[in-house]
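COURSE: Structural Biology Practicum
ASSIGNMENT: Worksheet 4, Part C
STUDENT ID: 0417
INSTRUCTIONS: Below are two proteins. For each, the amino acid sequence is given first, followed by its C-alpha cell string. Answer the questions at the end about the second protein only.

PROTEIN I
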Amino acid sequence: MVLEAETIFIVDLLAIFAIYVIVNLSLNMEFGYTGIPNFGKVLAVGAGAFVAASIPGRIFASIAGIEGDYITDNLLIVSQINLWLVDNVGIGFVVFFLTLGIAAGVGGGIGLLTSYPAIRLRGDYLAITLLAFGESIRIIGNNYTPLVGGTLGVQVPDPLSFLPNELRFPIATIGLVAIAAVIYVYSERMIRSPLGRMLRAVRDNEVAAEALGKNSMQIRIKVIMISAALAAIGGALYAFYVGGTIAFAYDRASWTFWPFLMILIGGLANNKGVLIGTLVFVTLRKFIIFFKDSLEGFVPFDVIWLDFLLLGAILLAILLYRPQGIFVEKPTPTLANKTDEEQSKMRKIFNLFFK
C-alpha cells in the first residue's frame, strides 16, 4: 500500500504541529506566563536532538554487539541497528523512552545553567544574553564531531523500524500527537494551580510578588528548567521523527523566532491560543513550501525567500493590528487541591470519632 500525496501531507503536517506544540507550550510557560523573553529557545531544542542523535544509537550498538566507530561508520551501524530492532521491539521502546528522559534531564540542566542570567537581568539584556546561549548549540554541534558528526550529521535509529514503510509515519505521528496532548494537559493543570497564579504575579509586578513573600528568583529558575526540559523532549522527538540530526538544522529562526511568532499569532498566556497559532503557522508554511515553486516567475525575488517574507509580513500585521493575538488572555480558575480536600475529609472523620 502506497500513501497518497494528500495523506502524506496531512500526516507530516500533524507530526510537525505536535512537535512545535510541545516547544511552544514550553515557550508560553516562560514568556507568556512568566515574562521571561527566552530568545535562546533553540538551545534546549538542539540539546534534546543531540541527545537523540548521540546516545540511543550507541546503546543499541552496545546491546546488539555491533562494532565500529559510531560517527565514522554511522550509516552502516544505524542500518544494522534498524535491522536488529525488527526482532527487538521492546528494547527499542525502552531505549526510546529512556532517551526522552535523558533529553529532559539534559534540557533541565541546561535550563539551570542559563537561568543564572535570568536572576540578575531583565528585558532586552536578558533576551540578548539568552540569544547568545542559543547560538552556542549550533557552533558546538558543528565543531565537536563526536557529538553529532559535525557538519555531516548522523542518522538516528528508528524504534518503529519493525513497521512497514507506509505505516511508519502515521504511527509515529499518532505517538507524537499523544505526547503533545499529555504535555498540553500538564501545562493546563500547572497554570490553573497556585503556581500558575504566582507566575502571573511575577510577570505583572515582581516587586509586589516579593512584597507578598514570593521568591521570584526561585520561581524564574524553576520555570526555565521545566520549560527547557519540555523543549528538549520536543527536540529529541523531532530527531527521531526525521531520522537524523545535523547541527545547522537547529538555527534561531526555526526554533526560536518561529515559536515566538506562533504564540504571538495565537495569543500570549493562552494555551488554546498556542494550539491555534501553531496550527495556522504550520499549515500556512506547509502550503508555501509545497506551492511556492509554481509562483516562480510571478514574484520579483527568489521563491526560496517566500516563506520568510510572508511570515515576516504576518508578524508585522499582528503586532500592528492584533498584538494580543487571536485569543486574549483570560483569568483561569484554580483547580481544587484534591490533597487539601482529602485531608479535610480525613480531619472530619477524625473529629467525628475522637472529638
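PROTEIN II
(use this one for the questions)
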Amino acid sequence: MTTAAPGPAALEHVRTTIVPELLAAFPGVAEELPTPFEIPQVRVSPEAIRGVAEWLKARGFNMLLDLGGVDYHPHRQGEDRFEVVYHFFALPQLWKLRVRVPVGGQKPEVPSLSDLWPNANPAEREVWDQFGIRFRGHPNLTRILNPDDWEGHPLRKDYPLRGPRAMGPYLPADLNRFHPFKDEPPDEG
C-alpha cells in the first residue's frame, strides 16, 4: 500500500490514482463527479455499492465516517429522487472519498454495509427512519429516532408539515391545536 503525504497531496492521490482505478474496476456503474468541495466524489449505482465498498476497504479505506440520506423532491422524481451519501476515510493516509448512490422508485433500497462497517448499522436505521430508504440485509432495520408507531418518514420533502394528521379529517381537539397565527389588534370592547 502506498502512503501519500497528508492534506491536499492525499486528496490529489485519491483524485488521480484511486478514483481512476475505481472507475476501471467498475465500468459503467461508477462515474466521477465534479465537486465544489475538496473531497473527490463518485456516483455509484445501487447494485454496485456493496462491491465498491468492499473494494475501497481492501484498498485501505478503513473507516466509514458517516452515511446520510438526501431527498431531491420535487426537482427529481423516479429512480434518482433520493441519494445515500457515504464518506470513506483511510488512516494513516488521510484519503477521503464521497460516494453518492442514487435511489428511487416506490421502494428505494440499497444493500446494507453494516457487516463491513458496524457503525453503518445505526446510520442506516436513521436513514430508513427519516427517509424510508431500505437497506437490504440489515440485521435490525427498525426505527431509531421516531416512535415505533410513527407513520411515514418525516424528512421526505412530501411529508405533511403537520404530520400524518394533516392528511386526514381533524378531530375537534385538533382544530385549536393547529390554528394559524393571526396578527390582529386585541379586542378593546
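ANSWER KEY EXCERPT:
Q1: Residues 8-25 form the longest helix (18 residues).
Q2: The mean pLDDT is 89.
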